[in-house]
């Protein structure tokens, strides 16, 4: 591991750079039943504290089901690391299913159950300020996770560098369009307007697109990161700018998948489309040539880092920060852009989360063979 200094808009951060060939992430197919995911906090698993508190309880509160990563990776990895660090600690996990009011209730419930640290990925970054205020007034520490909380500093923030993510996926697309001498303009599909991380990604995209020489035809902030909303918007833009769309910068794999679905539904050739999160379906689309790029964000890195920070706070220690963002001590990690050129190396490392047998199903077997994935 080494450190690099990366300029990101109006601030500079010292970012941990990892070997992405050995740490890869994505998302498995399917979404778990909504009822189970929005229920009250799960009982502590074997090896965690009982109701008497043990060495302390930590709440892990995730924002939505639109991205499959939270159920498949973030929560299990966080729980596993906490069990390694503190076998007598309990983890209270809940998912708010994109409901900011529900997330507030879940935070209150966690504090009532004795949580001393809350690791919070907010549904609504502005509304989450109330959660931070309430928690800190009761002596409960808050770790902002993945998405920042600008209006009320948390005790710590753990994430990937979201502005750098936006700039990386957009610059990758711009470079590709220039290399292929593409003609036309670009559509920009941003994330949720209530997500501060989406705002940083949006800023990063503009850093690359605004002076690229490709006209920004239109842009859209996608409510709740919902792929179907992105698809509906892209369909309308396709009708307006038919024949003039050289590429689509989408802020994540879900919105990118929505844009691709819009082009396919209109029976129009899909232009290069970006993504972010390296979900299984996105990797398959890249193999098939439908999606141009995504971002590999090894969730293991941030989930374990958040657990480390939570444990330190439980022990009354002060976690080490690399920088400050929104006046919050922060640890930001640098991800990797993935295209067909480096897909095999980054995504299918021996210890990677995605396995070829899961990705290279019948529909994608020929593409996998062509890329040397087996």
What report would you give on this structure?
- Helix content is 39%, strand content 20%.
- The chain has 13 helices and 14 strands.
- A 7-stranded mixed beta sheet has the order 4-3-5-6-7-13-12, sandwiched between helices. Strands 9-8-10 form a 3-stranded parallel beta sheet, sandwiched between helices.
- α3 packs parallel to α4 (128-137), α5 runs parallel beside α6 (196-209) and α7 (227-241) crosses α8.
How is this fold's topology laid out?
Layout: E1 2-8, E2 11-17, H1 34-37, E3 57-62, H2 69-85, E4 90-95, H3 100-112, E5 115-120, H4 128-137, E6 141-145, E7 156-160, H5 162-179, E8 185-190, H6 196-209, E9 216-221, H7 227-241, E10 245-250, H8 253-265, H9 280-288, E11 294-296, H10 299-314, E12 323-325, E13 328-333, E14 336-338, H11 343-347, H12 356-359, H13 365-370
Parallel strand pairs: 3-4, 3-5, 5-6, 6-7, 7-13, 8-9, 8-10
Antiparallel strand pairs: 1-2, 11-14, 12-13
Helix pairs in contact: 2-10, 3-4, 5-6, 7-8
